[in-house]
Amino acid sequence: MHRRLLVVLVPLAVLLVTALGVPLGVTVAEREVQETYVDRLNDVGRFASLAETALSTGRTEALQQELARYHELYGIPVAVIDTSGTVLLGPAGAYEKAARAEPALPRIVTAALAGARPEPSGKWAPWDDSALVVAEPVGRDSEVVGTVVTISDLSRTRHRILVRWAQLAGLGLLPLIALVTVAWPVSAWVLRPVRELDAASSRISQGDLTIRADAEAGPVELRRLAESFNTMMDAVENAVQRQRAFVSDASHQLRNPLTSLRLAVESLEPHLRATGDGRQVYDVAVDELKAMQRLLNSLQASARMESIRTASPVDLDAVLATRVDRWRALTATAGQTLAVDVPPGLRLLEPSGGLGSILDELISNALRLSDARVVEVTAQVVPGGTDAGHGRPGGADTGPGDGAAPGGVVTIAVRDDGQGIDASERAQALQRFWRSPRHQNVAGTGLGLAICADLVEAAGGELRLEDGLPRPDGSGHGFAAVIALPVVPRASSSDTLAPSPL
Q1: CATH number 3.30.565.10 given to 310-492
Q2: Which of 5, 43, 48, 350 could crosslink 314 through cysteines, CB 3.0-4.6 Å?
Q3: Do residues 82 and 145 lie in contact, with contact meaning Cβ atoms separated by under 8 Å?
Q4: Which residues on neighbouring strands pair with residue 477, listed in sequence order?
Q5: Counting Cβ atoms within 10 Å, is residue 414 exposed (0-12), middle (13-18) or buried (19+)?
Q6: Coil, helix or strand for 97?
Q7: Which class would CATH give 2-159?
Q8: C-beta atoms surrounding 37 within 10 Å
Q9: pLDDT tens per residue, range 403-442
C-alpha cells in the first residue's frame, strides 16, 4: 500500500522539481551564452578601435600580429574586412574556412559595413553546433571603412552549460532521494494500521470473530479507528456468542421436557383401541415428537460445531480409514454399493468439526434421500485451484505463512445415481431448514448440508452441488456434493493452522 502512496508522491515531487529546474536551467544557459557574447563584443570593439588607427596610419603589422596571436591563443578566427568583403588583416585561411559554415555571415557583415552593430548569429541551445558571429564596424556613420568579424566556436560554452545542468539535476535529485528515504518508513508507519485493519476485516469475513487490530501503533486518527473497530468487534462477538449460547441452552433445556412429553404420549399406547382414529393420532404425535428431538439435536450440534473456528491439516487417508468400513456396512444394509477411488497421500485443511463428520453427512444424504444403487467417493488435486467463496485458498484460518499451498485444492466428491436435485433447487438446498418437497416424509431437519457448507467455507473451501452419476434407466443424473479444500504441503505436517492475533 505504501508503494502506491510513493507512486503518487514521487511523480508530484518530480513535476515540482522539473517546474523549478527547467526555468533555472534556461536562465543558466542564457547567462553563459550572454557572457560569451559580451566577451566577444568587447574583443571586436577593441580590435575595431585598433584597426581604425592602423588603417588610417598604414601601420598594420602590430595589429596583424595581435590578430594572429588571438586566433592562436583562443582558436577564434578574427579578421578585418574592407567594404568589398576582402580580408585585410587576420588569419585569412582560418577565417574563410569558418565563414563557409555560417550562412548568416554575409547578412551580419553587410549590416556592420552599413554602420550598424548587428545582433549575434547562431542558436544558443547547447545541443546546436552553430558558431557565434560578432561584427563591429571600423569607423563611424558614413566613414565606415571596414568591419572586424569574429567567428566563435561555442563548444566550450555548451560544455559548461551541460555541466551546470548536470549539477542542477544532481541537486534536484537530492530532495527526491530525501523524499523517498523519509516517505518509505513514514508511509509504512502510517499505513500499517490500515493494512492490519484490512487483514482483520478479511479474517472476520471468513468467520474469525476473535481477531483484533493493534490500537497502539500509527497516527492518532488511525489508533482511534482501531479502537472503534475493536469495540465494534467485541460487541459483535458477544452478540454471536450469546446467540449460540441461546440456541445451545434452549436446545438443551427443551430436551428433558420433550423427552418427558414423549414418554407420556407413548404411555398412552396400551389404552388405545385397536381400531379407531386414536391410533392414527397417536402415531402422528410420536412422529412429531421424534422430529422435534432430531431438530433440537441438530441445533445443539450446529451451535457446538460453529463455536470451533480453528482449521488444521489432516491426512485424507487417516480420515477415510476410520470411515470407509462403516460406510460399506451402511450401504450394504441398504442394498447399495459403495465405491471409493481416492489416491493416497492427500493432505488438506480440515474444517472445524472434522472432515469425517462432513463426509458422514454427505453419505447419509445419499443413503436416505437419493434412493441410489451406487454411491461413489472420489478425490483429486486441482493445481492452481482457488475456492469460489473467497478467491483464494486458506480462507479465514490460513495465510501466507500458514503453510497452505496457495496454488491447489483437494476436491472430494460424493456422487450417487439416485433421484438427484433439480438445478433450480441446488442453491436452496444449502440454506438452513430447507427440504425438498419429495423428502417431506423422510426423517431429517434440513440443517445437514447447510452446516457442512458453512464449516467448509470457514476453512477457506467450498461445498457445491452438481450432477451425480448417470441413472440406470437413463433418465438423467443423480446427486453429487463436491468439497474443495486447500492443499497443505507435507513440510507443514506438524503445523496447526490456527488464527494468529494481529
Answers
A1: yes
A2: 350
A3: yes
A4: 470
A5: buried
A6: helix
A7: alpha beta
A8: 19
A9: 344 458 899 999 988 877 777 777 767 766 555 545 444 4
